[in-house]
Amino acid sequence: MRFSNFDEVLSRAASHPRPRRAAVAGAADPHVIEAVLDAKHRRIAEPVLVGNPGEIAALLVKHNEKADAFTIAPADGQAECGRTAVELVRDGRADFLMKGFVETRDLLRPLVKKENGLNLGRTISHMAFLQVPGIDHLLVITDGGMVIHPSLEEKRDILHNAFELLRRIGYENPAAAAVCAVEHPDPKMPETMDASRLAAMNREGQLTGGEVWGPISYDLAMSAEIARIKHYDCSRCGDFDILLSHDMACGNILAKSLILNAGALMAGLVVGAKVPVVLNSRGSSAAEKVLSLALAAVSAENREGGAL
Questions:
Q1: SS3 207
Q2: Could you give the angle at which helices 6-14 and 286-299 cross, rounded to 10 degrees?
Q3: pTM of the model
Q4: Torsion angle defined by CA atoms of residues 304, 160, 116 and 50, in that order, rounded to the nearest 10 degrees
Q5: 183: how many CB neighbours lie within 10 A of its CB?
Q6: For residue 175, which of 100, 211, 222, 270 is within the disulfide window of CB 3.0 to 4.6 Å?
Q7: Around 170, how many Cα atoms within 13 Å sit in the side-chain half-sphere?
């Protein structure tokens, strides 16, 4: 099953008999509380609030909520908030992670520690899901938020992460376009050589879980008609699920361009560990955080009792 829009994601997350539990690291933040309360009221996710109990309770009271109706895990300082949130997931008391008012490193460091059992040994990457006007399905851009200049091996991990998450939420054969400025390998453009190698790895069974095409320019990837005119033989042109960015800057600029200039809606997840992480920026709207929580809840719905 492929998602056409975020309404379908929200509906799927809310339909689960037990809402997925989000361990919220650094929950004593007004914007975070607003988002998790919205998610709770919609039955999208049940927050486990990590941080200073008094500060969290005061924020809940401002929203006419009773603190004793919530699970609050005490933690002092950002680093302890991150460790405690990861421990909640590790011990099966939460299903996925959400970054609140903590530094990203304070959440990811304990996540990747081998002793916590959540590290898969792969590159951690970011997936931006976008609902773009005029496109009949959610579009994924990866990686525009974690890996600055990925190597060929890191790009393989980034695609592996994307394929694995999409298949987990019901996609049968996700397709990725390794986007470049041109659609042919050129030694003067290293990203085209990487794209060609990734496509070859996919054909040879070294990168499985979906289809990889590349190098391919953005216009061909997004338009079957332009691909036909330019004689680019690819059945997935105009219908790709994933756009693989050459580096973080390209992915970041592309996603923000679609949001600001094309009216796209976005939700994002950090993937590559045993559980997804909601890792929105502080400037993200409450609506974006809720959509990200819904995606995480859907991707974690098969995780029971501490196992995927």
A1: coil
A2: 60
A3: 0.93
A4: -70
A5: 20
A6: 211
A7: 10
